[in-house]
Amino acid sequence: MAKPGIDFPRSEQEFRAWFQDDNACLDYLDWLRWGNALVCTSCGIINQPREVSGRVWRCSACTAKVSRTTGTIFQDTRTPMTVWFQAAWEFCVDKGGVSALTLKRRLGLGSYETAWTVLHRYRSAMMLSGVDKLSGTVEVDETFLGGVRPGKRGRGALGKVMVIIAVELKDPTGYGRTRMRVIPNAQATTIKQFLLDNVELGSTIVSDGHRSYPPATRGNYVHIAHAVKPSGKQAHTMLPAVHRVASLLKRWFLGTYQGSFGHDHLDAYLAEFTFRWNRRRSPDRGLVFYRLMSLAVQAPPLHYDDIVKNPQPKPTRPTPPATKKVRPNSLSIPAPARPWRSSTPTP
After folding, report:
1. Which phi and psi (to 5°) does residue 204 adopt?
2. 136 close to 168: Cβ distance less than 8 angstroms
3. What DSSP assignment string belongs to 43-111?
4. Are the C-beta atoms of 196 and 207 separated by less than 8 Å?
5. Contact yes or no for 100/112 (Cβ under 8 A)
6. Could you tell me the residue ranges of all domains in the chain?
7. What is the pTM of this model?
8. Mean pLDDT computed over 127-134
9. Per residue in 259-277, pLDDT tens?
10. Could you tell me which CATH number the domain at 137-277 has?
């Protein structure tokens, strides 16, 4: 069990005290990956703890140079580690998260693309968190995400993305964990694959009266169907858990991202929401930071070209900047300065 004040910072002040420079950030990543020893990614030999500085250290056994970020989402990054850590803290300390534009402004980054890439790499790590399957009684239903458009509503609506959501029901009341995924349709084979991937066999599936659920659950789950239309009741009263999560998901998109998202990246955003929902009762936001960084050192490397799904050529070729492109400035805390002493206070 992770301990506050030992395994993760408990406050903004403690965070700044712990991670004052890039080397402190790298040392924390080393500890998350290997504990109190260093493991060579070339020969696998465990090296005794010793002073290490910079992003590269030399193995005492095979003399290979080992990058401290190899095999993580930080591999090959030119962004200072203090920026990565501050971004993760901003990402976790607010329950609603942070957009790339807001992160760019807060950290003083030179480009929106840098902030966007940092956040998407963290989202790729969040996708590793949903490995334990839901169990017990689980509500399942579909919802639609996308802008308001005229025409048919619900299943078959144009310009919308279908998302299937599963939520655990607690006894006697309350909601547990959730899982969600973008799906191309609501056919039985699609729903069955989602259930097999995310719900323990033998669990009870509660759904509406859609005809795809009986064949999707047959032989693997106990199925309880609530036919909404014949009952004369509202769908949110028949399946309250799924509709609560779907409502909060849409509100989250409107609040944090102003309702804007790329359909090709929607699964990454769903992973972020799922990560947040499943840790909504965390006693300390620093613990959420600790969980995210633990996943970040396990997730495979991801580069900007891997993240961009559908790159669009620019109508006109951009003019190269007059000055050479530079890396983001490190957030390392220098010796304290007192600039106010250089001026006279205004009466």
Report:
1. -100, 125
2. yes
3. T-PEEPP----SSEEE-TTT--EEETTTTSTTTT--S-HHHHHHHHHHHHHSTT---HHHHHHHHT-S-
4. no
5. yes
6. 12-90+112-128, 137-277
7. 0.86
8. 87
9. 777 778 899 999 999 999 9
10. 3.30.420.10
